[in-house]
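TASK: fixed-backbone design
INPUT:
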């Protein structure tokens, strides 16, 4: 719950806890979700197309835990591969919006910071 104008407000969807002053700023997530920049995103659980038995985006796993992600994904603390933003081959696992390496046909820009834009 958050307190907004002296009224208790429920945290946004999929949050298990949120900022006391902002119900849209998640501090924790419900089961099946992970925290990224104050927002709870669903953890992908479908099997990848290469039939290796790992979760979506995972190249190598040990049981349910991923050890190595494919390009365009990053490994989160829960052991799942989370997709980077479109056009990004390598993003940080702390902030999916920060791209470190762009896909072919894209270039890294500083406005917004560390974001890939299509080369035209």
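OUTPUT:
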């Amino acid at each position: 719950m958050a307190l907004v104008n002296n009224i208790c407000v429920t945290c946004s969807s999929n949050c298990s806890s949120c900022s006391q002053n902002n119900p849209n700023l998640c501090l924790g997530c419900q089961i099946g979700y992970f925290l990224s920049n104050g927002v709870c995103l669903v953890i992908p659980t479908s099997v990848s197309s290469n039939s290796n038995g790992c979760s979506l985006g995972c190249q190598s796993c040990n049981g349910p835990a991923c050890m190595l992600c494919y390009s365009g994904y990053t490994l989160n603390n829960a052991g799942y591969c989370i997709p980077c933003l479109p056009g990004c081959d390598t993003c940080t696992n702390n902030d999916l919006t920060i791209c470190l390496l762009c896909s072919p046909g894209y270039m890294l820009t500083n406005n917004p910071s560390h974001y890939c834009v299509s080369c035209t």
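COMMENT: The chain is about 0% helix and 50% strand.
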